[in-house]
Amino acid sequence: MKFEKIQAPKGVREYLPPESSAFDWVRTQLIAPAAAAGYQLMELPVFEDTNLFTRGVGESTDVVSKEMYTFEDRGGRSITLRPEGTAGVMRAVIENNLDRGQLPVKVWYSGQFFRAERPQAGRYRQFYQVGIEAIGVEDPAIDAEVIAIADRGFKNLGLKNYRLDITSLGDAASRAAHRVDLMKFIGTLNLDEATAARAALNPLRLFDDKRPEMQEAMKAAPLLMDYLSAESSANFTQVLKYLDALKISYVLNPRMVRGLDYYTGTTFEFVHSDLGAQAGIGGGGRYDGLMETLGGQSLSGIGFGLGVDRALLAAVAEKSLPQEQFTSDLFIIPLGDDAMTTALITAQELRAIGIKTEIAFGDRSLKGAMKGADKSGAQYVVVFGESELSSGVVNLKRMRDGDTSSVKIAQLKDVLRETLSR
Ligand code: HAM
Q1: Of all residues in the chain, what percent are helix, strand and coil, respectively (each to 5)?
Q2: Which residue of 105, 108, 129 sits with most ligand 1 atoms within 8 Å of its CB, as the best mutation to test the pocket?
Q3: pTM (2 decimals)?
Q4: Which homologous superfamily is 330-420 in?
Q5: What is the pLDDT of residues 254-280, one digit of tens each?
């Protein structure tokens, strides 16, 4: 009987060797600046109570209304695969009283997120984000620091072709004043039922409507930026001053609407120019009412989520991936059982001091093993044969140019450490 092959679900992104090492590198580099700034890891469940997202992220959003993977678990509870990370962080902070200790609570996370979107290049149904959240301090300096951490992550990848879009959604008073005029303006438009319903939940959503006729209609709409209260305006100006001081350039984009409803105050998006339609490589902002909405105290917060899949695509497009990072330093080819024992011991010693070492396994010919060494991309190759074992000396071959040198097995460690550090 022949079984049918099973395929991965539609729209999921997998990373297999050799690409997976590039993915791993991108993810590590992107989030490294968070730890350097004192953010600590939070590992959270990938599924949560559905209410967390309907209430936290907002029902006017596509993310909640169209894209959630929601199901009933065996106990009849409504469960949703997390479409984003901020709501879960808030839930965990409130549930574990982290907000009763030292503020701000500063955390980072990394993992899979799920949105039932139409798959295309750079847009997946399971994708990866790294993110940070800083909760409990209202200070424009922390807004600037959060943005600077994201920017440093992209710079770590060697990216250049991106820009930072920024705006402010102001405080509650600013948004209330703007809403009155925006609703008046929207009342003059001829909207279909679904759009009108969306506008009633969150009128700002209409700025995000991609249909050309809506884009055209919204050109004359009043902008929130013109309604900022004196305090919100002063705050935002200060954020921009800090960014100037940090030499982080930005583009003011008062029409920017993020896809999640919790945003207030400073909001931003990083946009890459080589990625086509799915150009957003990261985004974030303040969410000053979120904690209260989720049953906690009234504390402010700010954070970002960076798309690891898209950052990798951007690094590929800009050819900024360091190729040599992903290959071994040494490939050992043992011939026979005794040689294998020596190879295992030697490899263990070399790996312990950080020299990436591979061994040719299985009963292969020398020719076959050399092919394996070639394919591995290792920088150096040694053969452990009978004569090498009895003399204790091997030929260390540099694959780049075939250059060989005689080295005592006992001294491989020192010789490699020396040549690899050059
Ligand atoms: P977001 O803008 O929805 O924000 O997602 C952040 C990033 O995740 C996007 O800029 C994009 O790079 C990536 N991304 C989103 N959806 C997909 C997808 N379907 N396929 C591939 N990549 C995707 C948030 O999720 C907020 N939680 C960020 C945040 C944290 N705001 C405050 N704190």
Answers
A1: 45, 20, 35
A2: 129
A3: 0.93
A4: Anticodon-binding domain (3.40.50.800)
A5: 999 888 989 999 999 999 999 999 999
